[in-house]
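Quality-control log, excerpt.
Job 1 of 2 completed; input and output follow.
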Amino acid sequence: MMDPIFIIGIAFLVLGGAFGGYVVFHKVTVMDPLEAEEKAEIEGMSCDEVKIKHELGQYWSFKNWKIANEKVMSCTGATAPTGGH
């Protein structure tokens, strides 16, 4: 007969694996399409539209924020910060 601690440990491993599987499933089925849709929207926006969205800072991914930031910088002619040196 197994000790109860081992049974509890196995239960936690099973629950952790199920939760991890759900996280990956959610990323693939929900987040990836939202990120791709937002990327296409950003690429099709005018400079003013991107500036408004960029001021709100509401992006599905950091990649899309970087794309929007590059577009804002190219529209205004500003340069990216160099780290203060």
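Job 2 of 2 completed; input and output follow.
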Amino acid sequence: MGIILSLMGFILAGVEGILWSVVLGVLILVISPNLPPPFIFSLIGGRLLFADDAPVLYQITQKLAARAHLTTEPALYYLPGHMMYGLSN
């Protein structure tokens, strides 16, 4: 991934582009694990689903959480678009 990023930097800005791509790549690696999923979802246009919005999904989630012995049930979000997302925190 770093090689591809460096190559793109070189193509766009030469040797200086490699330096910028490395700096930005490291910055992304440092910042991205600290971004909470709700913030990422809001950037995509997602919103939190409540039990009234999708009762069947909440029933399924409750059953799965109970089978997995989870202490808290996961929150469900609606993310508009045709892509599938799999995110957790």
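Post-run check on job 2. The two ends are 23 Å apart (CA to CA).
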